[in-house]
Each structure stands twice: as C-alpha cells, then as structure tokens.
Amino acid sequence: MGDPKFSRKTFDTPSHPWQGERIKAENEVVRQFGLKNKTEVWKAATRLKNFRKQSRSLQARLRTGDAQAKVEADALIAKCARMGVLPVTGGDLNAILVLQNEDILSRRLQTIVFQKGLATTIKQARQLINHGHIFVDGHKVTVPGYIVLREEEGSVSYNPASPFTDEMHPMRAGPGAAPAAAPAPVEEEAEETAEPAEEAN
Question: Taking the model in full, what pTM does it have?
Fold first, then answer.
C-alpha cells in the first residue's frame, strides 16, 4: 500500500522525456491555458486516458451482451456530460474516444473564470482564484485546476467579500475598468505637445 506520508502520483509522465514535438506542443498548451507547469497538462492527459480506457473496455463488454456494462457505460457518459466535455444528450462511448486534452483543460476553474470575463487575462484568473476572490456554488475555491461541473458553471462569480465586486475596481475586467480608458488621454496629450514643436520649426 505504500507509506501514507508519500501519496502516489495521480498522473502519468511521458515515457520519453526528450521528444521535441511533444515538448513544443505542451509548452503551447501551458501558455494557452495559463498553467503553472506541465504537470497540469499530464494530469489532464491521464484523466482523459482513463476515460478512453474505460470506454474501450465497456465497448468490448457490450459486444458480449454484458448487462452490467450497459449500466456502467451510461454512468460514464453521464459523468462526462456533467463535467461538460460531452453534450447533455446524444453522447456515447465513441464520443469519449475523440476527446482531446483541451476539452478537459477547458473545464478548469481558471479557464472558466477567464471565459466569463471575471479576469482580463488567463494568468490573472489564476491569481484571483489563488487569492480567494472566486466563489463556486456559494463557496470559495482556491484551486485553479478545480473541474467545474456544467451545473456549477453559472454560479462562478466573485467572492462577495472581494474588492473585485466593485465595478470600478481598476484591475477588474470590463468596460468600466480604469486601465481600459487610461491610454486614450495619454495619446491626445502626446499629440498636443507635438503640434507646437512643429509650428516652432
């Protein structure tokens, strides 16, 4: 069982550490989703691999007429639908086999916060979550990798005690934020100061 002080890894690492194309693709995913490191990519890949493994196993059992396999297949499809990686209706085991890592990563709380416009950048979304500014279903969640269920997506919002609830907060996303309106006056001042210089010449 192992030492309880040292829990087993919940993800699989690449079998070959020095594959240029894979490293390049992982770096792109890390930038796209604002991940801390590649470990989060491997966790998503392991979760997806387990889903695919279950799907292939269940398909083989269904072909033999196993009644229990039908129950387990429906449960797996329903689980993926609750996660939001499959449609609410019409999903099947074959649809699980064509899922990509991006489908899993797009359900992370960090990604959802950015998509809902609660943060101006994907990295700011991670910071807001880590600092306790985000609520999910009425509870504070400080784990950027938390998988948001479909039913929870609508409840993702700012912490009521967070200063980000103020629409005029300078770091808040949206048209009312100060950084978005600040650059325009600076450009006008630059143009006004440039015109007298031309007249002097």
Answer: 0.78
